[in-house]
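Page 37, continued from 36.
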C-alpha cells in the first residue's frame, strides 16, 4: 500500500478550511489516502470570519454575509449539508443610504456599483445635480472605448458616467467593499463584467441590462437573493468545515515560521521548537506573510507577492438596549469627499434576523486605514459613537461594544494586477509541491476565498 500523501494547509481562514475539505473530497474520489494537517497561527479557526455571542448580540468578526452570484460558497454549503441554514437579508428593510453634506440620502434603486441602471430612481435622486444626471444619462450615446491593457475603476466611471457619479456613488460603494481607492484599483481584476458590458454592447448601461435579462432567462433551480448568510451567522460555515476535518488534523496556535524545499520533493516546515515534512503545502494566508516565508527559496516570487498592497480597517460593533430610530435600510456608505473618519455603517440587526435581542439593535461602524493602524480602542469607540451621533442623531450609550482591527488585511488589486498574477503563476510552476490560496490573488470576498482554496487543493492533488 502507498504511503499517505502528507498535505499541509497553512492558515485556517475560510480559504484554508475550504482547501482542506476539498483535499479530503478529492482524495476520497480518487481512492487515495492523505495525511492532512491544517495549521493555524491563532487560537481559533475561521480567520476573518466567525461570530461571537455577546450578551444576546450575534457579533460578526468580519464578513456578515456574502454575494451569491459567485457559486463556490453555495456549492460548498450544499456539500457540507448546511444549505438549509442559509438566510437572506430581511426584505422589509432593503436598500442603503449614502452621505452628502452630512445628510443621508437613499442610494437610487438599481444603481449597480458603478452604473445607474434604474433610470427613473436615478433621475429623481437629489444626490446628483441636473448637470451630473445629464452627463451620466449621455452614457448610452458614447462610443465603445478602444481596447486597452487595464485601467482604474475611477477612470472607467469618469469616462462613462462623469465625476459626480464617481464621487457621490461609485467611490463610496467601492470603498465599502474593497476599503481601497478606485483611482488605483484595476477594472479587469475587480469588476470585469462592467468592461464586458461596454465591449459587448458599446454602452455599459445597455450591456448591464442585457446581462441582467440573460441571467433571468438562464436562472434555474433554487434562487437566492444577491446576498446571503447563515441563521446563526458566518460561524455556521466555520463550524461545519472544522467538523468535517479528521480528528487531530487542525492545529491551533501554531504559526509557521519557515519553509525549506527538500531535494526529494515536498518541503520541511518549521514551527516553534520542531520541524516536519510534507509532500504538498497549500499556503492559505495573505500575500505579505507568504512573501516573507518564500523569500529565502524564491526571491522573485516573494517580490511579486510583496507588491500586492493590502489595506487596513477597524470595525466597531455596538449593541444598543433599545430599538433605534433613524436606522433606514441595511446601512450607510460615506464618500471620501465628505472627509469623515467612518467609511460605512451596517445596521446588522435590520439587515439580518436574530442578530440582536428583541427590541434592541446592533450597529457596525467601519473606520478607515489611519485610525485602524494608529488609534487605541478607546478612540475607535469614541469616533464611532461621534459618527453615529452626527450622522444619525443617535446618542445612546451602547450596552455592548466589540472592536476588531484588521491591519494590512484587505487586498487591493491595483492596475496591472492580472499581469502580476501571470508572473506569479509562471514562477510557482518551479515549485510543484506548493500552491497558493487565500484572497490576495483572485477575488476578495468569502466566495472567492473558498474558490481559491478549492483550486489550490485541486492543484495539490493533481
Ligand atoms: C472587516 C472585514 C469585513 C469583511 N466583510 C466581508 C463580507 O461582508 N463579505 C465577504 O464576502 N467578505 C468580507 N470580507 C472578506 C473576507 O473576510 C475574506 O475574503 C476572507 O476572510 C479571506 O479568507 P482567507 O482564508 O483567505 O484569509 P483569512 O480569513 O485572513 O485567514 C487567514 C488565516 O491564516 C492565518 N495565518 C496567517 N499567517 C499564518 C502563519 N504563518 N501560520 C499559520 N497560520 C497563519 C491567520 O491567523 C488566519 O486565521 C471582510 C473582511 C474584513 C477584514
Amino acid at each position: 500500500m502507498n504511503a499517505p500523501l502528507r498535505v499541509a494547509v497553512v492558515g485556517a481562514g475560510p480559504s484554508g478550511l475550504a482547501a482542506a475539505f476539498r483535499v479530503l473530497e478529492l482524495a476520497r474520489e480518487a481512492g487515495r489516502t492523505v495525511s492532512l494537517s491544517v495549521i493555524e497561527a491563532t487560537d481559533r479557526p475561521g480567520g476573518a470570519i466567525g461570530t461571537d455571542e455577546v450578551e444576546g448580540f450575534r457579533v460578526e468578526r468580519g464578513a456578515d454575509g456574502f454575494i451569491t452570484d459567485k457559486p463556490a460558497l453555495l456549492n460548498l454549503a450544499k456539500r457540507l449539508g448546511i444549505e438549509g441554514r442559509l438566510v437572506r437579508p430581511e426584505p422589509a428593510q432593503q436598500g442603503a443610504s449614502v452621505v452628502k453634506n452630512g445628510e443621508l440620502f437613499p442610494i437610487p434603486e438599481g444603481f449597480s456599483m458603478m452604473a445607474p441602471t434604474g433610470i427613473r430612481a436615478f433621475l429623481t435622486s437629489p444626490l446628483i445635480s441636473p448637470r451630473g444626471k445629464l452627463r451620466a444619462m449621455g452614457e448610452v450615446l458614447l462610443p465603445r472605448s478602444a481596447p486597452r491593457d487595464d485601467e482604474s475603476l475611477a477612470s472607467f466611471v469618469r469616462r462613462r458616467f462623469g465625476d459626480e457619479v464617481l464621487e457621490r456613488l461609485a467611490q463610496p460603494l467601492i470603498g465599502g467593499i474593497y476599503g481601497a481607492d478606485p483611482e488605483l484599483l484595476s477594472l479587469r481584476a475587480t469588476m470585469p463584467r462592467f468592461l464586458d458590458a461596454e465591449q459587448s454592447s458599446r454602452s455599459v448601461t445597455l450591456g448591464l441590462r442585457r446581462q441582467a435579462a440573460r441571467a433571468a432567462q438562464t436562472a434555474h433551480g433554487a434562487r437566492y437573493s444577491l446576498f446571503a448568510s447563515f441563521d446563526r451567522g458566518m460561524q455556521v460555515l466555520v463550524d461545519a468545515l472544522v467538523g468535517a476535518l479528521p480528528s487531530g488534523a487542525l492545529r491551533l496556535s501554531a504559526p509557521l515560521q519557515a519553509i525549506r524545499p527538500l531535494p526529494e520533493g515536498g518541503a520541511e516546515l518549521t514551527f516553534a521548537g520542531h520541524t516536519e515534512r510534507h509532500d504538498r503545502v497549500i499556503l492559505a494566508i495573505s500575500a505579505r506573510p507568504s512573501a516573507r516565508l518564500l523569500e529565502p527559496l524564491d526571491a522573485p516570487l516573494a517580490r511579486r507577492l510583496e507588491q500586492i498592497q493590502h489595506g487596513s480597517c477597524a470595525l466597531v460593533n455596538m449593541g444598543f438596549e433599545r430599538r433605534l430610530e433613524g436606522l433606514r435600510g441595511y446601512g450607510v456608505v460615506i464618500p471620501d469627499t465628505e472627509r469623515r473618519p467612518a467609511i460605512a455603517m451596517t445596521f446588522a440587526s435590520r439587515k439580518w434576523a436574530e442578530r440582536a435581542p428583541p427590541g434592541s439593535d446592533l450597529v457596525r461602524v467601519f473606520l478607515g486605514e489611519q485610525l485602524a493602524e494608529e488609534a487605541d480602542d478607546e478612540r475607535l469607540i469614541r469616533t464611532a459613537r461621534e459618527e453615529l451621533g452626527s450622522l444619525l442623531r443617535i446618542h445612546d450609550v451602547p450596552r455592548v461594544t466589540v472592536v476588531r482591527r484588521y491591519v494590512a488585511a484587505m487586498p487591493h488589486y491595483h492596475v496591472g494586477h492580472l499581469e502580476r498574477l501571470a508572473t506569479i503563476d509562471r514562477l510557482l510552476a518551479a515549485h510543484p509541491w506548493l500552491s497558493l490560496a487565500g484572497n490576495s490573488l483572485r477575488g476578495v470576498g468569502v466566495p472567492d476565498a473558498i474558490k481559491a482554496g478549492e483550486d489550490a487543493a485541486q492543484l495539490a492533488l493533481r
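The mean pLDDT is 94. Flag for discussion at group meeting. Residues 10-16, 39-42, 47-49, 62-66, 255-256, 284-285, 289, 313, 315, 406, 409-410, 438-439, 444-446, 449 surround flavin-adenine dinucleotide (CB under 6 Å).
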